[in-house]
Model the fold of this input.
Amino acid sequence: MPVAGPREAPAPAPRKPRRRPIPGALKVIAGLFVLAVAFIVAAIVGGNSGGGEPTSSAPAPPPAESGGGAPAETPPSRPASELGYPEFATANTTRVGGSDPASNAAAAALAAYPSTEPAQRPGAVALADASDWRGAIAASVLIAPPLGAPLLVSEAGGLPEASAQALEALDPQGSRATRGAQAFVLGGAAAPEDAKTTDVGATGIAGAAAIAALRDRLFGSPPKHIVVAPAEQPAFAMPAAAWAARSGDPVLFSNAGALPKATAAALERHPHAPVYVLGPSTAISSRVVREIAKLAGSVHRVAGEDPVANAIELARYARGGFGWNVNDPGHGFVVARSEEPLAAAAAAALSASGAWGPLLLTDDAARLPGAVRGYLLDVKPGYTTDPTRAFYNHVWVIGDQEEIEVTEQGEIDELAALAKIGGGR
Done:
């Protein structure tokens, strides 16, 4: 197997996926959570984030009351799925409902790159080690242009079935931007057979620094900004994945009380790049921020008091070209559980395509946190006379009902829905 870089810890390679023509790839796509529907929704949303109204084949949620205003016969205690509530998609949400990060990453990659024809395929994929959430979040920078390498989840023993099927459908062939590499193999991830790979053997904090160095080589330009995220509190680090995929800014990690040597060395390579520390002082101390200030042109903290608020803060933040600055309607969003750090990396491709947008977090499977509800109300779209000329929000919901129940998806759909404003016709 041609290899573009040495591996520190070779892992057994999985069975080589058989290459199929496009019809076969479509079958693979359909086999991953019946994703054919998802691609249709993603295409509609991606083409209408600022103009046309997104639609869905899913039926509307059942009414809370029957025709005469009396309570519906079905008790509200029954699960929403039993009432006919669409679990996969609503008018304003699409669920990537895998039961594990590998399945969610495969679905997100195929939603961003349907791969039904060569022009829709990525030049390469990034294979992240399932046991290394830090490396996976850092690898999200490889999704950004010009690379466009969506992330798949691998294991030391081989590719999970969902990842293998997605890799077969995506069929990366390498590109000038990837220096011919078809896969970036990170940490202890298994490498595909007979593929040209660029390997990053380090993991964790050192792995993130190595990915930042790889980013510099492939992008051919220094980063505009650098993110330093908490290495010990993953929920505070999760929003960095979506931002890295959207911006191309590398993600480094720091412990709460001391700046790691690998991170310091990476910062020293770019002394003029402003650094943004993600998370409160309980996750990365003020002492560490002062250490970073000695190495960087400037340093700024973006923080919320808890992971939910922290994600919203980055979604709202804007300074010198850094931050989503999403403070008005007409955007995409991704919602994931704060307990699943790999979900942030798995879904990052959805923040860098279609209706690009930030990652928001929920810490409850059944109910949306009040802070997220308030934020989505602030950016809720509206119209006065013509809904077809309005701006629209769309939300990707990551995980199955164990992670986010359909009742919470219903809340999200309501908050993202276009609303009539005023008395115009």
Observations:
- Residues 235 and 338 are 5 Å apart (CA to CA).
- Confidence is low (pLDDT under 50) at residues 1-85.
- Residues 204-219 form the longest helix (16 residues).
- The chain has 14 helices and 14 strands.
